[in-house]
Amino acid sequence: MSDRLHLNLFTMSAVEHVSPGSWTYPGDRSPEYTDTEYWTEVARTAERGGFDAVFFADVRGVYDVYGDDRDVAIERAVQTPASDPQLVVPAMAAATEHLGFTVTRSTTYTHPYQLAREFSTLDHLTDGRIAINVVTSYLESAAENLGLDERMEKEARYDRADEFLDVCYALWEESWADGAVERDREAGRYTDPAKVDAIDHEGEYFSVPGPHGCEPSPQRTPVVYQAGSSDRGREFAAANAEAVFASQPTEEGVREYVTDVTERAAAYGRDPESLKFFIGVVPVVGETQALAEAKHDEYTRHVDVEATLALLSGFLDMDLSELDPDQKVEHIETDAIQGTMNAFTKAQPNRNWTVREVAEFCGLGTTSPTLVGTPELIADELAYWHEEVGVDGFNVKEVVRPDSLTDFVDLVVPELRERGLVPPADADPPGGTLRERLLGEGQSRLRSDHPGVGGAAGRPSE
Ligand SMILES: Cc1cc2nc3c(=O)[nH]c(=O)nc-3n(C[C@H](O)[C@H](O)[C@H](O)COP(=O)(O)O)c2cc1C
Questions:
Q1: What CATH number should be reported for the domain holding residue 63?
Q2: Does 460 reside within a domain?
Q3: Which residues of 368-414 form beta strands (DSSP E)?
Q4: What is the pLDDT of residue 140?
Q5: Which of 17, 158, 335, 361 has the smallest count of CB within 10 Å of its CB?
Q6: What spacing in Å lies between the alpha carbon of 266 and ligand 1's midpoint?
């Protein structure tokens, strides 16, 4: 476990991310997501608050599962409209010095050769401050828009994701040897061709001879994030993720998840200490407990319950409009996001959540715990998760933008700094890259025990 806390701002380049209805809160600036100035301001605030990175969620397709119709999602801005987060990162990077950026990309709807090029470019332009959150996508409407008749089944999506990363690792790690780039003006030789190799990948989903078209970037492979809860999702995290997003809302659920993924990672020959576990939290902070609770009441009044149901219907691939709001939520194995289902069933077997209760709970930040209180109380809670449960860091979820971030930075971070859980404002981070921030100085490159190093990603020994 890290000796300090890691912090990501969990956001989306959209009007609404995971708090449906909050954009109607007076003064909320979410509709400015189309402005460069909005994002550069967010980046500067996050950097001032000692955040490691801004983590951009992203989806393809619209939320049209609820009522078998997209109107609620479109009317209430349920993750639509949204724009491409990758394109705003260079502007945010230019406005900051140390802040990292995690960009969500789907292995189902892009090609590894193309993606490897995009992330090498971003890693160059940001001097090694880039991470990728690898997802397999869950909306049927995305499949239809991106060349498939229907969404691939989850097993096949993860098969493709495995092969996808094998190709990327080969391009990022193997294709260009260290020292290939000479930049020898006198000899007129930029690159030594003997040090640039084809990768000759022939697989079930991809045929990529290579070589990679970009010269090696500071981290080569971007820091790999993943958030999967199904059996295959956990296996994928264990093989690939350097930072894992555990979405369970309860302590028992998080403990079980961390232990399970850690054991699976050890079976791949990885040092389990090198995996960093993050959970989502929704802080609602006030100078006094009464002020924090008043703010929470006000935020709750702006939750759009029907829009939340539309969002959850997409997460679960289950039309919640067909259910009685007072009906108990029964566990299903879903082809969409298993973690959302598990959060209210498997993770809490003794509590019978109704559809209405789930929607009300999820209206502020979906499945993550909401922490309401003074800076001291919130710091106590974060310290507990860190020290007692073994979580390395937090994805801080917003309700109102940018107030959720500025409240956290101005009120909670000083308290965390006081306790030594976040480095002082004037401390330089260890090294310049995002991986060094997570793993320590000198560790800009993928660790040698990571399955992505040294050829096709290894599978665990039986
Ligand atoms: C906390 C969390 C955040 C996620 N963020 C995204 C996202 O931004 N975009 C996306 O397409 N999928 C996202 N997902 C979906 C997962 O990465 C994964 O593809 C999906 O959960 C299906 O796999 P699973 O059933 O193994 O969890 C997220 C899932 C979780 C639990």
A1: 3.20.20.30
A2: no
A3: 370-373, 393-397
A4: 86
A5: 335
A6: 23
